[in-house]
């Protein structure tokens, strides 16, 4: 409220997004990949909120709510897929599901 | 507020680093909760208390609980931790770390390359549009009773809808209202709700459709027996 520069908040969003991206690239466990995707979505929401605060408009928070609902739907489907994958392969390795055999 | 912002952003970054480096899934989830709470604090200092509450309730309350349930169902033990440690060799970090650092450097360069453009443009551009005044008037109206509140909500929506248009015509940024305490308070849940069910009503419909699709997909993927039997039937 009192003079937080929008650049710093955008920088924080960028750092969080890149940490999430690094997590997606590095980890092989599917649960950690999903967690990193959550971090990235959260960083995108932070960027929206920052922009909305910088312009004094509520639209940033509206977009954050949309991102939130999208993240909830995504994580429910993703975790259901993780459970199904664990039942099929008995592992959480993302590379175990790299072959398509229908 | 400044100090709180910087402290909570440092906590968020540290907790996120710890999230992506842990080998135990439950520890990573606890650090993820810390990171989300710190980001909620950042939202609060940015003047978005409704988003902060939603962050705590939905992210830290619902999504992380979903993760914890799945981790409980998967029943990972010390074996998975040693396997995770074997997967996380230090040279795994080199490539993604370098790529992310390059991206971060570019972002910092871009952010530092445009020094304080909003005030310069604002002094050169036309006077500040009325949208900074509209939410303040909404704040003043919110003190009335509910009936007049609802009747005012419809026509206090009009300046909002019309104030969404002018940025196309006069693109210059308004004065950065973060420095203006009145308009920083003005991002109340009321303004968010008016925007959400006014110009963004179709987005709300689409979000509900998306959530319904997620529900159906999770139900379909979670039902174990049918496809197992079908697959067994195909095999045999």
In percent, how much strand structure appears in the residues of chain B? under 5%
Radius of gyration of chain A: 17 Å
The rounded Rg of chain B comes to 24 Å
Name the chain pair with the biggest interface and residue counts per chain.
Answer: A-B, 72 and 93 residues
Q: Characterize the biggest β-sheet of chain A.
A: none
State the end-to-end distance of chain A: 55 Å
Q: How many strand segments of chain A? A: 0
Structural class of the secondary structure composition of chain B? mainly alpha
Number of distinct helices of chain B: 13
**Helix/sheet category of chain A:** mainly alpha
Question: How helical, in percent, are the residues of chain B?
Answer: over 70%
Could you walk me through the main structural features you see in this protein, from its secondary elements to its overall organization?
- The complex is a heterodimer of chains A (102) and B (236).
- In chain A, helix 1 (6-26) runs antiparallel to helix 2 (30-55).
- Chain A is mostly helical and 102 residues long.
- The relative contact order of chain A is 0.13.
- Chain A has three helices and no strands.
- Chain B has 236 residues and is mostly helical.
- Mean pLDDT of chain B is 72; it is low at 119-184 and 232-236.
- The radius of gyration of chain B is 24 Å and the shape is globular.
- Chain B contains 13 helices and no strands.
- In chain B, 78% of the residues lie in helices and 0% in strands.
